[in-house]
Amino acid sequence: MDLIAQERDRLLRSTTRVVGIVCALMSVIGIVSAFAVPALPLAGGLVCIALMIGALGAFGWNGSLWWTGLVLVTGLGAMLVLLLAVEGDDRFNVASALVPLAGGALSAPLMAQRGTPVGLVITALAGVASLVITAWASGTPFSSPVVGVLLGWVLVAVVAYWISRSIPRVARRIYAIGNAHRAERQASETEAQRRQGARLLHDTVLATLTLLAHSGVGVSEQAMREQAAEDARLLRHLRLGATPQPQQSGDYSLTRTEESPLGQTLESVKQRFGRMGLEVAWHGTGQVLLPSHVLDAFLLALAECLENVRRHAGVPEAHVTIVHDNEMVRAMVTDSGVGFELDAVSAERLGFKESVVNRLREVGGDARLFSAPGSGTTVVLEAPR
User: Fold this and answer.
1) In whole angstroms, what is the distance from residue 383 CA to residue 385 CA?
2) Nearest-CA neighbor of 59 among 116, 121, 112?
3) In the 8-state DSSP scheme, what is residue 106?
4) What is the predicted pLDDT for the residue at 28?
5) Among 361, 286, 365, which residue's Cα sits nearest to residue 321?
6) Which end of the chain, C or N, has fewer beta carbons within 10 A?
7) DSSP of 185-252, one letter per residue?
8) Cα dihedral sign, 125-126-131-136
9) What is the pLDDT of residue 52?
10) How far from each other are the two terminal CA atoms of the chain, in whole angstroms?
């Protein structure tokens, strides 16, 4: 809000400067074009107007009350010097030429006197003085120059009031929009954390519990103990308030590196599934460097695909082929198991969708699944380099 208030004051000062200078120059053109004021008083009046323009320029920078006073004094002084030097119809013509100065240049500081009662008072007094001088010069309080000056002051006053009321409303709306944006961002972050937590439990504790529910079929007792110990260590860290950073499915570390070689981590995935009875045969690339967050997503998705092979394919072996180019790393996970109908998979089963597809899409990658009953399953994983 303070920043908006500062920008508001700067805008009002700039508007005052522009309006005041333009109106003063319009009066200069009208006075010079009338050829009614003698040379010496004309020079004195133009000097006063020049000082007024300089004060308006300075007022646009800092809005000091002293500059406001100088604008008003020099403006009224220019009117008196020029009007006292002429008589009769010439005085009326000069008064008409001074309408932009009296009704615009002198009233312009009114727009930037927000919160300064002294400035408002002296500006209002200058307005009354300009009306009195114009009425005297034109010979009647209802002449066209007086009406022009009065309309100028009324217009500036209305604009000043409108701006003073509108800017706070706009500031409140901006603040409300900012609050809404922060609330939406917080909700998005909360949802992302919830999904990450769901994946974490799916890839670790729930996987272990599933093994226990099936009495550890196909998995040695030692492998079960090691997996349960890893899950217990992870849950203990979470209870102490740590934020886990996944390195591979079922094995989450609390530290992160900026860049890791893919070849060094694929072997740990192979060893883990070897302990649980699934032989993984690797083909293709041995070493590829990936950013840490991409590597996390890629390995977790790969491990989830191998976990699905171990649990559902009915075969003891899976093949993983790794290839890469300048933009992408691809892994093709294949098995010769029982396969399944893709359309027969319930939409409520979110394991593959969340732990594989969405996880890769969040880092700019993707996943595709191919399967048929009796023909095995193939999953193609893609991650950006």
Assistant:
1) 7
2) 112
3) T
4) 92
5) 286
6) N
7) HHHHHHHHHHHHHHHHHHHTHHHHHHHHHTTTTTS-HHHHHHHHHHHHHHHHHHHTT---EEEETTEE
8) positive
9) 92
10) 43
Asked whether 381 and 333 are in contact (CB, 8 A), the reply is: yes
Residue 335, sorted as left (phi over 0), alpha (psi -120 to 50) or beta, turns out to be beta
What residues form DSSP beta bridges with 260? Answer: 290
- CB neighbourhood size of 143 (10 A): 17
Q: How many residues does the chain have?
A: 385
Per DSSP, the residues of 284-350 read E-S--EEEHHHHHHHHHHHHHHHHHIIIII--SEEEEEEEE-SSEEEEEEEE-S----GGGS-TT--
Tokens of 72: 């008003």
Decide if 246 contacts 203 (C-beta within 8 A).
yes
Averaged confidence pLDDT in the chain: 80
Q: Whole-model pTM? A: 0.47
Overall average pLDDT of the 200-218 stretch: 65
- Asked whether the beta carbons of 87 and 80 are under 8 A apart, the reply is no
Token output for 255? 């530290």
Determine the Cα–Cα distance for residues 201 and 242; give it in Å rounded to an integer: 15
At 226, the amino acid letter reads E
pLDDT tens for 109-145 read: 888 876 678 878 888 888 899 999 999 988 888 889 9
CB 105 within 8 A of CB 52: yes
Chain centroid to CA 195: 25
Which pair of structure tokens corresponds to residue 97? 């030429």
**How many helices (H) and strands (E) would you count in the chain?**
13, 9
Q: By C-alpha distance, which of 344, 328, 343, 340 is closest to 375?
A: 340
* 78 — pLDDT class (breaks 50, 70, 90): very high
pLDDT at 63: 76
Residue 229's identity, in one-letter code, is A
DSSP readout, 29-70? HHHHHHT-S-HHHHHHHHHHHHHHHHHHHHHHHH--HHHHHH
How far apart are alpha carbons 27 and 21 in whole angstroms? 10
